[in-house]
Amino acid sequence: MLRQIEGSQAVAAIVAACRPEVISCYPITPQTHIVETLSAKVKKGELGSTQFLNVESEFAALSVLIGASATGARSYTATASQGLLFMAEALYNASGLGLPIVMTVGNRAIGAPINIWNDHSDAMAMRDAGWIQLFAEDNQEAVDLHIQAFYLAEALSCPVMVCVDGFILTHAFEAVDLPAQAAVDAFLPPYDPVQVLDPSDPVSIGAMVGPEAFAEVRYLAHHKQLEALNRIPDLAEAFQKHFARRSGGLLSPDRLEDAETVIIAMGSVLGTMREVADQMRAAGDLIGCLKIVSYRPFPAAALRTAVARAKTVIVIEKALAAGRGGILAADVKMALEGLPLRIQTVIAGLGGRPVTQASLKKMIEAAQKGELDSPHFLDLHWDVIHGELARQREKRASGPSAENILKEMGKKAKPIY
Amino acid sequence: MQQKPFAVTLDPNSSRQNHTGLWRSKRPVYVDRLPPCNAACPAGENIQAWLYEAEEGKYFEAWQKLMADNPFPAVHGRVCYHPCENACNRGELDEAVNIHAVERYLGDLAIEKQWTLEPGSKSGKKVLVVGGGPSGLSAAYHLTRLGHAVSLYEAGNKIGGMMRFGIPAYRLPRDILDAEVARIEAMGVALHLNHKVEDLQAELEKGSFDAAFLAIGAHIGKRTDIPGRDAGKILDAVQFLEKMESDAPPKLGRRVAVYGGGNTAIDAARTAKRLGADEAVIIYRRDREHMPAHDFEVAEALEEGIQIHWLRTITSGSDEKFQVEEMTLDEDGRPVGTGRFEAIAADTLILALGQYVDADFLRNVPGLLVSEDGVVQVDERMMTGRPGLFAGGDMVPSARTVTVATGHGKKAARHIDAYLRGKTYQPPKKHALASFDRLNPWYYTDADQSKQPYLDMARRRKSFDEVVGGLGEDTALLEARRCLSCGNCFECDNCYGVCPDNAVIKLGPGLRYAFNLDYCKGCGMCAEECPCGAIDMIRESV
Amino acid sequence: MMSKQVVKFYQTGTFTVGNRLLDETLRTVQSGIARTNSLNSGHRACQGCGEALGARYAVDAAMRAANNQVIAVNATGCLEVFSTPYPESAWQLPWIHSVFGNAPAVASGVAAALKAKGKTQSKVIAQGGDGGTVDIGFGCLSGMFERNDDVLYICYDNEAYMNTGVQRSGATPPAARTMTTQAVGDAPGSRFETGKNLPRIAMAHDIPYVATATVADLHDLEAKVTKAVKMRGARYIHIFVPCPLGWGSDPAHTIRVARTAVESGLFPVFEAESGKVTDVTPIRKKMPVEDYLRLQGRFKHLFGPPKKTETLAAIQQIADDNIARYGLIEAPDSE
Question: Which of B371, B416, B372, B342 minimizes the C-alpha distance to B146?
Answer without folding.
Answer: B416
